[in-house]
Structures are given as structure tokens and as C-alpha cells.
Design a protein that fits this description.
Elements lengths: L2 E6 L7 H15 L3 E6 L5 H5 L6 H12 L2 E7 L7 H9 L9 E8 L7 H12 L4 E2 L3 E4 L3 E3 L5 E3 L1 H18 L3 H6 L1
Parallel strand pairs: 1-2, 1-3, 3-4, 4-5, 4-6
Antiparallel strand pairs: 7-8
Length: about 180
């Protein structure tokens, strides 16, 4: 099947966004995809903020994007936009790093007032980077994601069902050729 790069754009180690992505990674793996997790917060801050495209960690991240057939990008929404650490990474990647790739944008936030951030803040950047197909993204309210005491994740049933459908659509889109995906 396809190789998927699952990118968490959260700056927090205890992020609901990151945990949600890792939860969804399991579903993609069950579909037969190879999933590579990338937590942007683990990249060196000095490389991200200093725009050091030659730093080995940034080079590895760019190689992971190049290798992937599809990219799952998750971000918390801050001040009606995606996270700054995600922006810093996207700025360091080659201009057309998403060429030929299927992309699924996901976001989390505390209020439905931020639901359009995917379409108005993140989608234009993904488009400008040459994504062949950006599937319908999904916004999840923080209150619908619970981290249990044992570290496992619980997602509200209606949200879990909707996320499952979105991830399944992304998985199906990965099987299409870039030309077919761009035409749909």
C-alpha cells in the first residue's frame, strides 16, 4: 500500500492533537499503509527558527516528506490559524514538497469558531506546496478527546465515527493515481 507521513504540528508533548494523530495512525496501519510519525516539536528549535535547511534533522524531515505517498497533517488551532512550529517546518521544505501527494489536514481546538481555519489558513499553504489532492479535512473539539489515566485515548462516539470516515476516504484516495486524484 502507501507510505503515509503523519505530522503533528503541536508544540506540546502532551498534546491531544498528537495523541489523536497516533490513534488515527493505527487505523491507517490497519488499512495496510506504512505510517511514519513526525512530531514537529522534536525538531531542533534553533534549526526551525534559524531556517537551517541544512540541519540534519530538517534534511531528514524533508526526506520523509519526499518519500511519502500521502501526508496526514494535524495541528492545534491557535488564534484562528495552525501552529507556528508547523508553519516553521513548512517554510523550510522545498516549495513543491507535496507535489503528487494526497494530503489530509486535521485540526483540534477549543471552539467551533475555529472550524474554518483548515480551509482558510492551512489548505492554501498545502495547495501552494503542490499537493495533488487535499481530501476534506476535519476539525475536532478538544472536549471530544479524552486522555485516560493509562495514557490511552477516548474519542467521543460521533467524532470517532466522523474521523473514521475521513481517514477511510484519505486511505481510499491514496490508492488513486495523482492525475485521477487531482481531477476529483
Amino acid at each position: 500500500m502507501a507510505t503515509v507521513l503523519s505530522v503533528s504540528g503541536s508544540p506540546s508533548a502532551t498534546s491531544r492533537t498528537g495523541r489523536l494523530l497516533r490513534h488515527l495512525d493505527q487505523r491507517l496501519t490497519a488499512h495496510g499503509h506504512e505510517v511514519i510519525a513526525l512530531d514537529v516539536r522534536t525538531l531542533p528549535a534553533e534549526a526551525l527558527l534559524g531556517a537551517d535547511v541544512r540541519h540534519p534533522a530538517i534534511v531528514r524531515a524533508a526526506e520523509q516528506f519526499a518519500r511519502a505517498d500521502g501526508v496526514l497533517i494535524g495541528t492545534p488551532i491557535y488564534k484562528a490559524s495552525y501552529s507556528g512550529v508547523l508553519k516553521a517546518l513548512l517554510d523550510l521544505l522545498p516549495q513543491y514538497a507535496l507535489t503528487g501527494k494526497t494530503v489530509l489536514p486535521l485540526a483540534t481546538g477549543g471552539s467551533t469558531a475555529h472550524v474554518l481555519a483548515i480551509d482558510y489558513a492551512l489548505r492554501p499553504v498545502l495547495n501552494s506546496m503542490g499537493a495533488a489532492h487535499i481530501v476534506q479535512g476535519w476539525f475536532t473539539l478538544d472536549k471530544d478527546i479524552t486522555v485516560r489515566e493509562d495514557g490511552s485515548l477516548a474519542v467521543a462516539p460521533a467524532t470517532a465515527e466522523a474521523l473514521g470516515q475521513v481517514v477511510d476516504q484519505f486511505s481510499a484516495a491514496l490508492g488513486r493515481t495523482p492525475l485521477l486524484a487531482a481531477a476529483s
